[in-house]
Amino acid sequence: MTLYVLTAIVVVLYSLASLLAIRSLVKPTAALGSAQHRVLLLALISSLIFHGILLNLKIFTASGINLSFGPAMSLVMWVITMLYLFTSLLRPATNMGAIILPLNIVTVIIAILLPSRTIIESNTPLMQIHIAIAVLAYGLLALAGVQALFVNSQEKALHAHQAKRINLHLPPLETMEALLFNMLWGGFILLTLTLISGIFFSEEIFGKKLVINHHILLSAGAWVVFGTVLFGHWRWGWRGRNAVHWTIGGLSLLVLGYFGTKFVLEFLLSK
């Protein structure tokens, strides 16, 4: 009963935060420190607190760590939203909330409704560190994917000579692209640490030898894609649509590698 009550509270809070974020996108972007920005941050912080309590009850069970499809997806979205909160405190990034916050509502509901099928009994400090780094990497790169969508929409508006209208709702394109590459660099470094720890310290973390599977291959492929766009930006000044396409491509591989594989194993191939 407690889980369902908490879920209802979280859904209501995220719904309020979503409406405020969408309002900030439809109307001129709220300036940092404005009343509208402060209300959005308050709703966002309240949502994250209750969502965190819900995740703690759902993931850390007496049997072990529950990282089934639903809770894992909700955990990643919680981290994405936390990163979005920090970004909103430093830069005018409230536009991302119009996509991120409604998705939180969906993942919270999925996490409470779907059965738990992946319980990790090993709960060592190394395991916890590996999971924390991996979730942060996925969260930051997913946030970069959302940012890439806004950069793409702004690029299209500029080419269609609608710059004045689009700039009312989004920060300047240079600011948007700088934020995108900052997110990509942070996510790439964390993803590198995740792959290194998972590949070279498999026995210490998971208690078994490394097995090359779809998850590892797709994650490594995503690492190559993100590395390519960052090298291209550094060496040849890649930006705009080039950066957007490579970012979305890398994120697609990452999502397929973890959530796609997990969905197939838990729901399509499970007996």
Task: Give structural attributes.
271 residues; mainly alpha; 2 domains; 10 helices; 3 strands
How is this structure best summarized?
This protein is mainly alpha-helical and 271 residues long. The protein has ten helices and three strands, in the order H-H-E-E-H-H-E-H-H-H-H-H-H. It has two domains: 1-121; 122-271, no CATH class.
Description of the structure:
It is a single chain. The protein is mainly alpha-helical and 271 residues long. Helices cover 79% and strands 3% of the residues. It has helices at residues 2-26, 35-59, 69-90, 97-113, 125-159, 163-167, 173-200, 202-206, 214-236, 240-268; strands at residues 60-61, 64-66, 119-120. It is globular and about 55 Å long. The mean pLDDT is 85.
Oligomer, anyone?
single chain
Mean model confidence by pLDDT: 85
* Whole-number tally of structural domains: 2
Largest sheet: 3 strands, antiparallel
List the SSEs and their pairings.
Elements: H1 2-26, H2 35-59, E1 60-61, E2 64-66, H3 69-90, H4 97-113, E3 119-120, H5 125-159, H6 163-167, H7 173-200, H8 202-206, H9 214-236, H10 240-268
Antiparallel strand pairs: 1-2, 2-3
